[in-house]
Design goal:
The chain starts with a helix and ends with a helix. It has a two-stranded antiparallel ribbon. It is an all-alpha fold. Helix 6 packs antiparallel against helix 9 and helix 11 packs antiparallel against helix 12.
């Protein structure tokens, strides 16, 4: 009976994913067909409310790619090193305190990150770089890097703590130091879990909307580190409430593009992980 229950729950989960996929495809394809695939993906101007509307999302795509890449470049090393320290090297009291802090960080709503970034980070960027406005891609990257830290840290800790203790004991018995054991034994053994943590971080960074909207300026410009920009997610969130007709269909098309990005990232990572295992 329990096997049947778990099977049904698993099928329901898969069914939800399929329903979302079908809905996005059916809602997004008409606008792409009317606008033109090349113009939609590579057009550099988005003016959905103009007298002669333009629906090019290249600025949104590039901004999302640059913003996510920047957040990963900052967040992954910090989160990974923190996880290694907490899982293998930290004293018990420090580990308890820091894990509680990480859990608290994970529970903070995105809008709070955006609010703090808007009040503290945006003015700091403006003063530090002598800009007319601190709302920029740089501010968004920093906020995203902080947001993805809890996911990377918690999943990486779980993966590292699941490594059999016999592996580490054998390494230490052969004369390796604790640090060498961590990076040459524990980390390679837990690489699939660490990769899953990175995927979660990428998904969180790509899918974040509210916090990014509050610190990035939300202007449909081509991406610039110190310029106001708009992400794929913020383009949907900022216009969906008053959209209609082709504009609304175009927003669903943006959601479809975002969905496909996440699917491609997951597929690529799974491919490389399987290739490593086979090798």
């Amino acid at each position: 009976m329990m096997h049947s229950v778990f099977l049904v729950l698993g099928l329901v989960t898969v069914g939800f994913v399929l329903l979302i996929t079908v809905y996005l495809v059916l809602s997004g394809i008409p606008a792409i067909r009317e606008i033109g695939l090349f113009q939609f993906l590579f057009g550099k101007e988005w003016a959905s409310t103009a007298a002669e509307p333009s629906y090019g999302i290249a600025p949104f795509i590039l901004t999302s790619v640059y913003g996510t890449a920047g957040a990963i470049l900052i967040g992954v090393p910090v989160g990974f090193m923190t996880a290694v320290y907490l899982a293998k090297l930290a004293p018990k009291q420090i580990k308890t305190v820091m894990e509680s802090a990480v859990s608290l960080l994970a529970g903070i709503p995105s809008v709070v990150y955006g609010l703090v970034g808007m009040i503290v980070l945006v003015p700091a960027v403006r003063k530090l770089f002598h800009l007319p406005d601190g709302a920029s891609l740089l501010a968004a990257i920093i906020v995203l890097a902080i947001i993805i830290l809890p996911s990377i840290i918690k999943v990486s800790i779980t993966a590292l703590e699941a490594v059999p203790k016999e592996y580490e004991d054998a390494s230490l018995a052969l004369g390796a130091t604790p640090v060498e054991t961590c990076f040459r034994i524990s980390v390679p053994a837990a690489k699939s879990g660490i990769a899953a943590a990175i995927v979660l971080g990428v998904g969180r960074a790509i899918g974040e909307a509210m916090a990014v909207m509050m610190v990035a300026g939300n202007v449909a410009n081509m991406p610039s580190l110190f310029g106001s920009v708009r992400f794929l997610t913020t383009a949907i969130a900022s216009e969906m409430s008053y959209s209609a007709g082709l504009q609304r269909q175009a927003l669903f098309s943006i959601a479809l593009v975002l969905f496909l990005f996440i699917m491609l990232i997951n597929a690529a990572l799974n491919f490389f992980l399987k290739r490593d295992k086979e090798g």
